[in-house]
């Protein structure tokens, strides 16, 4: 794993290096699973399901980052680091970046226009992977 890329983000202040925390990673994954279950509740509003799916993705991505001994307070950076923590290609983590942009428009502008396909993409079972990458 290219730890040097993550260490470079520490040097420029985008990440903080901390001891890997398996217990925290497990708690974050449990939160991700619970939020993913909420996102799949068809009786919930589309907006609520999107928010749950987005938060599930963020919790899981943060779990991977913590597993590797880093932390970020920037949601975009957490998603961007999936390239290094889970060896995701850019086209895969950019789906989460697009969801992040939609989330920001909803939070800061009160505008959320989401399709069922977008929620399904965030909930896709193929997104599960080992925290160690690969």
Structure description:
- The protein has 134 residues and is mainly alpha-helical.
- Strands 1-2 form a two-stranded antiparallel ribbon.
- It has helices at residues 3-11, 22-39, 46-67, 75-80, 82-85, 90-109, 116-122, and strands spanning 16-17, 70-71.
- The model has no long low-confidence stretch (mean pLDDT 85).
- It has one domain (3-126): Four Helix Bundle (Hemerythrin (Met), subunit A) (Up-down Bundle).
- The protein has seven helices and two strands, in the order αβααβαααα.
- The longest helix is centred in the middle third of the chain and has 22 residues, at 46-67.
Quick description:
Helices cover 64% and strands 3% of the residues.
Attribute tags:
134 residues, mainly alpha, Four Helix Bundle (Hemerythrin (Met), subunit A), two-stranded antiparallel sheet, 7 helices
Strand content: under 5%
In round numbers, the mean pLDDT is: 85
The run of helices and strands is HEHHEHHHH
Number of strands: 2
Topology record:
Blueprint: H1 3-11, E1 16-17, H2 22-39, H3 46-67, E2 70-71, H4 75-80, H5 82-85, H6 90-109, H7 116-122
Antiparallel strand pairs: 1-2
Helix pairs in contact: 2-3, 3-6, 3-7
